[in-house]
Amino acid sequence: MRYVSTRGGVEPVGFAEAVMMGLGTDGGLLVPESIPQIGPLTLADWARLRFQDLAVEVLIPYVGSELTRGELEDLVNHSFASFSHPEVTPLVRVGRHQVLELFHGPTAAFKDVALQLLGNLFAHFLARDGGRLNILGATSGDTGSAAIAGVRGKPRIHIFILYPHGRVSPIQERQMTTVLDANVHNLAIRGTFDDGQRIVKALFNDLAFKDAHHLGAVNSINWARILAQTIYYFYAWGRLSGGDPERRVSFSVPTGNFGDIFAGYLAKRMGLPVDRLIIATNRNDILTRFVHTGVYAAGEVHPTLSPSMDIQIASNFERYLYYLHGERPEAVGELLAEMGRSGQMRVGAEQHAIVAGDFDAAAASDEETLEQIRATYRETGYILDPHTAVGVHGAGECDDMVCLATAHPAKFNEAVRAAIGIEAPPPPALRGLMERETRSVLLDASEEAVREHLRATLAAAGE
């Protein structure tokens, strides 16, 4: 399998180079030259597999000859050994819906599924090929801690995570800043997540700086992130369908950066029998508005009870635009230029009709989020975190909708307490966090401030 850029300026590369490159050297996002097609008989076989074995089967067509099956099996088994549930991502009935629990990893968030694997891929390729990697990423809450957990203490790697000062939950911040390994660097910026994402993209687009400092990406701009998240869509379908290829399943996905929902879209393109894919957003509803109107228009970022979704510019949206326009990089370039000029882009009527077939969308206010937590607890005794509550709200009255539970509710106990008057008991990974020593640096939300901090830190480390 070879990978190309959504902007057309990257010669096809293999899986290892795509993983290590992260963002394309032309500023685009990497995608496979073709999407593997999975037939009904294979789907039926996959439905009986445990999560780890299914992961190997989903990954193999994308990895190609870059890893042997044995190497991939070892990487997968090592990556998911730290999960506390034997099924890794169990499916639980909650009232009329199915909840896909993605929070049993070391940081109690869905991003552990991808970032435990990505961290081990980085370590494997660096040990095999030599060199060093300095990871640069921005987080709206959960990516940072999951990425840090994936690479802390690993040789040949430093990680720098930007997060919006005062705009992540106290537990999310502590999950990052209490990791004191010498290769971990937390950078609080005076701004929003979108500011952090803008800075990261600017530094990656400075090719001389990127190459000189061996920058790599862990945000969902990294193709391996998307690929790993695709696994649990197949897993959930298998548990519900029993392998019947006629059984179609629907998913409601709380999303801000379009990565998790794009993974579901990819699974559908591969042949998974998906009925509806619901994009569930909070007040920062740029994606919901796009589905309804065909216009993608950035606005102000509003703080909400679901802070990991407080995003206006969704970095993975470019991948969808690429497929929406028939895999034509020139069409993507025209839309991005329009966005740069006016702060918005509009797709044509033909493309908007395709969007309406690909996705449904719904947005939830903070009041509706609290009410959903309250109603679900009253009816079932199950506690939702606010992001998952946005997804359940989006599912509405649809029976057997699979709602992705993206974080453990104890990570957002202020919202849980406001809704139901009690707190969710913390999982082992979160106990004692607030009493531990912390380390972080506060910086202005500017490209130059972050650039100079990276230079100074790496120089002090002798790199």
What key attributes describe this structure?
6-stranded mixed beta sheet, Rossmann fold, globular, single chain, 463 residues, alpha/beta, 5-stranded parallel beta sheet, 19 helices
Please outline what is shown here.
The chain is α/β, with parallel strands linked by helices and 463 residues long.
Explain this structure to me?
This protein is an alpha/beta fold and 463 residues long. It has a domain at 91-106 and 223-420: Rossmann fold, CATH 3.40.50. It has 19 helices and 15 strands. It has helices spanning 15-21, 40-46, 51-63, 69-80, 111-129, 142-151, 170-177, 193-205, 207-212, 223-241, 259-270, 286-293, 317-324, 329-342, 349-358, 366-380, 386-395, 413-420, 447-460; strands at 3-5, 30-32, 91-94, 97-101, 133-138, 157-164, 184-190, 215-216, 249-254, 274-281, 295-297, 344-346, 360-363, 402-405, 441-444. The longest helix is centred in the N-terminal third of the chain and has 19 residues, at 111-129.
Strand residue content: 15-25%
Q: Describe the largest sheet.
A: 6 strands, mixed
* Main structural class: alpha/beta
Oligomer: single chain
Number of helices: 19
CATH topology of the domain at 91-106 and 223-420: Rossmann fold
End-to-end C-alpha gap? 33 Å
The portion of residues assigned to helices is 40-55%
